[in-house]
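One such shown below:

_____
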Amino acid sequence: MAYWLFKSEPNTWGWEDQMNKGAPEQWDGVRNYQARNNMRQMKIGELGFFYHSVNEKRIMGIVRVAAACHPDTTTDDKRWECVDVEAVEPLVTPVTLEQIKAEPALSEMVLVKNSRLSVQPVTETEWRLVCKMGGLEV
């Protein structure tokens, strides 16, 4: 199984919005080729971190890919595609970017190396460590 990280501005679409949706929601509005290509690789059932960007900079919870990559319905431009995600569970304690950067074992994480990428891969080792930091058993 592959793991992912999805970044969102909390004032646009935050973790509470995702949790309250109660159903899958398309991860639309991505206009970066690398992020789009990451979504093209995703399989239904894979898990990802839901990350609040901008001022908060913290991982809030876990989402599951609920639909494979498909056209983004927010644009007529055929280049842009997205997956649908659904909330799985919140982290017991959100994990901040500062905490991630302070953990030597996470120094190669894409979030540390390329923090601007809105949809990014996470290794299994990184996944397990961040879950543990957030109070979840894996």
Notes: The two ends are 13 Å apart (CA to CA). The chain has a mean pLDDT of 97. Strands lie at 3-8, 25-26, 47-52, 58-71, 81-96, 119-122.
